Amino acid sequence: MKKQIIALVIVFVSITSLTAQNKEITKKEKREIIQLVSENLLETYIDIDIAKEMTSALKSNIKTNKYKSITNPDEFSKLVTEDLQKVSKDLHLKLNFEPKRIAQKKRVMPEEMKIKREKMMAMRMAEINYGFTEVKVLNGNIGYLNLRMFADIKYAKDAATAAMSFLSNTNAIIIDLRTNGGGVPNMMQLLSSYFTDAKPVLLSNFYERKTNSKTQLFTFETVDGKRMTNKPLYILTSEKTFSAAEAFTYTLKHLDKAVVVGEITKGGANRTKRINLNNDFSISVPYIKSIHPVTKSNWEGVGIQPTIKTSKKDAFVIAYIDAINKTETRNKSKVLNKIGYTFLQEKSIDEAIIVFQENTKLFPEYANSWDSLGEAYFMKHDKENALKSYTRALDLDPTSKSAKEMIQKLENLQ
């Protein structure tokens, strides 16, 4: 009987959603939605002055009939979102047309189905290892973690603990957030705890305007495994790094715990909630402002400025070289050479060239450094620079058979 009831509920929701998805939005409905959006912004949005600006803009758009020709509710929600973000520069702020989700949220879900849905969600996250997609130790004993999401530690704590434990004996750690679009704060809280002292450290203050309430987020007093308080930490960013991934980056950067390498991030700082406006539309509203204890501000609308600004593509190799320079004291030239050849084997020729260039800069009198750079340029089909590099190698070591052979080979190329 329970299964029949669940099936009937699903069928009803599906039919309702199909009808809603195919509907056209009327002039009256558009006005009602704009009114509801305005009311919720004035009541809930983090900044009352910006909320007033947005509601004023929406009111003006209604007066000038900006939305008059739009009958598709998806198009309407997208245009209103653009108008809101144009004023606020807030990428978390959105009008959503989602009748299916709203109908699902409104129905009374049997406990059996709730448990089933939660298990399915946990299984899906487990299939991608809760965002911990790659953990490895690189040449030179540099740890690398590719983290694609900040999953709830209710599910992902073991994966996070395993990753931190695996990397605990490295000389430095690179955490790659270039494709991380965010997640939940407690994972940011857990990972930050591994790079701070046992005494809880204030990560962020929060302020909710609607309730005039203040809260704080601290690191955990205890973590499983070793803390890495003084270990050099690098965080890779891109223009796609967003939300909780930015919170982790910004927090550790301004606590002087991390070097940020890459591009300026997307710029979403404040905590957001979804409010259903009616049976078809909801609004995603930033309602809690995050305030860093050091900067007394956040990265909303402007993104995070990297410590070392470079392209998304070059961020990894730039951070890797910097980590080697800070941690390798005995055989730096040999380590860099080995790293360069690893890139060559992976067909990452541009990255190999960057590494070999660094080696020639640090050790300009080492013939082998120039010989390796020449090989990388040769693989890139850059005859001019390959010839220059091999010639320099031969000048430094006139007995180099390989340099002589390659110069001859290059000179014979058409």
Summarize the structure.
With 414 residues, the chain is an alpha/beta fold. It contains 15 helices and 11 strands.
Strand order of the largest sheet: 2-3-4-7-8-11
Mean pLDDT: 93
Q: How can the largest sheet be summarized?
A: 6 strands, mixed
Number of strands: 11
Compressed to H and E, one letter per element, the order equals: HHHHEHHEEHEHEEEHEEEEHHHHHH
Q: Can you put this structure into words, describing what you see?
A:
It is a single chain. The chain has 414 residues and is α/β, with parallel strands linked by helices. It has helices spanning 2-21, 27-44, 48-63, 73-88, 99-106, 111-127, 153-167, 185-193, 244-254, 315-327, 332-345, 349-362, 367-379, 383-396, 401-412, and strands at residues 94-97, 132-138, 142-147, 172-176, 202-208, 213-218, 233-237, 259-262, 271-276, 281-291, 308-309. The protein has a six-stranded mixed sheet with strand order 2-3-4-7-8-11, with helices on both faces. Strands 1, 5, 6, 9 and 10 form a five-stranded antiparallel sheet that branches. Helix 1 (2-21) packs antiparallel against helix 5 (99-106) and helix 3 crosses helix 4 (73-88). It is elongated, with a radius of gyration of 27 Å. Residues 1-20 have low confidence and may be disordered.
Helices and strands in order:
Blueprint: H1 2-21, H2 27-44, H3 48-63, H4 73-88, E1 94-97, H5 99-106, H6 111-127, E2 132-138, E3 142-147, H7 153-167, E4 172-176, H8 185-193, E5 202-208, E6 213-218, E7 233-237, H9 244-254, E8 259-262, E9 271-276, E10 281-291, E11 308-309, H10 315-327, H11 332-345, H12 349-362, H13 367-379, H14 383-396, H15 401-412
Helix pairs in contact: 1-5, 2-3, 3-4, 7-8, 8-9, 11-12, 12-13, 13-14, 14-15
